[in-house]
Specification:
By secondary structure, the protein is an all-alpha fold. It has 4 helices and no strands. It is about 70% helix and about 0% strand.
């Protein structure tokens, strides 16, 4: 799957924010689900680095949910890049 540099930056940043949120939420008592979620994010980051790799349907759905959540917080012209990502993964 081919993403532009700007799209890759957005995806990377969003996944890093997800990781930071998990670490913050589970700082005192990490659960097995938190560990699994972190492993999933790390795996997805590796797969995104290889632009020739096609993402699995579950990976596309996960990224789409992250991007759709982010679109709700954007105002102005920045939304076009997020829409472009969604078009590529849906």
């Amino acid at each position: 799957m081919r993403f532009s540099l700007e799209e890759m930056n957005i995806l990377t940043e969003k996944l890093e924010k997800e990781k930071a949120q998990i670490y913050q939420d589970s700082a005192y008592d990490p659960s097995a689900n938190d560990v699994h979620h972190l492993e999933t994010i790390a795996y997805l980051q590796q797969r995104l680095e290889d632009q020739k790799t096609e993402l699995y349907e579950e990976e596309k759905q996960y990224l789409a949910s992250l991007i759709q959540d982010e679109i709700g917080h954007i105002h102005g012209n920045g939304e076009a890049v997020y829409q472009s990502i969604l078009e590529k993964i849906q």
